[in-house]
Amino acid sequence: AKSGQPIAPMFRDECLRCLKNIVTATAAEIVLSSSWRLHPRGRTEVDKVLQQYGIGAVIGATPNLGGGAADRAREVAAWLACPPDQVMSFVVLDDLDLVGLSGSCEVTIRFVRTPAHRGLGPMEAQSATRILLTTRKI
């Protein structure tokens, strides 16, 4: 979003409903890896939108190691290298193709790519839910 404009309009209703379905089915919590994590205003806006849909606030964020797909994949892997003890499973949702870029087999097998033109949809939500429910230990 441009400076001063709300971020909330960038979120699509269908995407948030799909995210809500994942969270409800799996009791998942959200860790941000997107650029929204880099700005306090972005984090606040994300939390507001999630709250409107009955989704819990973001519980953490990946470190900032750069800006491209390879950096994003490494950021996810870095966060996973020292996650809280209670993390039992994870899935990575992103419109960037992160497969193979993190150097982590775990990230690759738990990755669901979302189409950039529409975001998270029912098919991706179903895949994410399946990963969270069937691939438990990290």
Automatic annotation (TrEMBL):
Source organism's superkingdom?
Answer: Eukaryota
- The protein's name in its UniProt record: Uncharacterized protein
